[in-house]
Structure formats: C-alpha cells, structure tokens
Amino acid sequence: MGCCGQQRAALTESGIANRPPDRAGWYPDSATVRIEFKQRQPVMVRGPVTGKAYMFEAASFTQTVDKADAAPLIMSGYFRVG
Questions:
Q1: Residue spans of beta strands (DSSP E) within the chain
Q2: Facing residues of 46 across strands?
Q3: Rounded distance between C-alpha atoms, residue 31 and residue 33, angstroms
Q4: When comparing pLDDT for 62 and 17, which is higher?
Q5: Cβ contacts of residue 55 below 8 Å, gap of 6+?
Q6: 59 three-class SS
Q7: Strands 79-81 and 62-66
C-alpha cells in the first residue's frame, strides 16, 4: 500500500482531484448522493461536474455530494455509494 502522497498523486493523475468544472450540466437544485472514500486518509476532491470541493477525512469519510458528481467519482474506483 502506498503512502497518502502517492494516493493523492494518483487522484491528481486520474484528473479527479483537479478537473475543471463543466458548468453545462450544473443545476443548483439537483439531488445529492452519499458516497464514501475507500481510502482512510484525508483528501479533498473537486466535483468533476459542479466544481464543488468535497473534503473526506477521518471524521467524515462519507459525504453528501451533488448527484452530478457522484457517478464520475464512483467510476474512479476511489469511492462507493455510502
């Protein structure tokens, strides 16, 4: 298992951590989904669709995220429906 720096680098390389927001599919009143970060170290990711920042840390590895961001985050393999 790699250190947290390597895992953050993997998120960055995958484009999940710093992908620019695509405002075309953004709706302010969209539903939310609870997802869980599978790793057990803190990480901040930007929603690939909304651009919202989500912080996953020891106190809250499960977060409520915008429905538009949930599918791409889950497909990354680092998250699951929580």
A1: 32-37, 43-46, 53-56, 62-66, 79-81
A2: 53
A3: 7
A4: 62
A5: 42, 43, 44, 63
A6: coil
A7: unpaired
52 pLDDT more than 90:
yes
pLDDT at 1: 47
Q: Where are the domains of the chain?
A: 4-81
- Please identify which residue in the block is written with the tokens 């989904």: 33
30, 47 in Cβ contact below 8 A? Answer: no
pLDDT score for 73: 95
User: For residue 11, what are its two tokens?
Assistant: 């998120």
| 8 A C-beta contact, residue 53 and residue 46 | yes
Enumerate residues 6+ apart whose C-beta is below 8 A from 56.
37, 42, 43, 44, 45, 63
Task: Indicate if the pLDDT at residue 8 is higher than 60.
Answer: yes
pTM value? Answer: 0.62
Rounded to the nearest angstrom, the gap between the alpha carbon of residue 28 and the centroid of all alpha carbons in its chain is 18
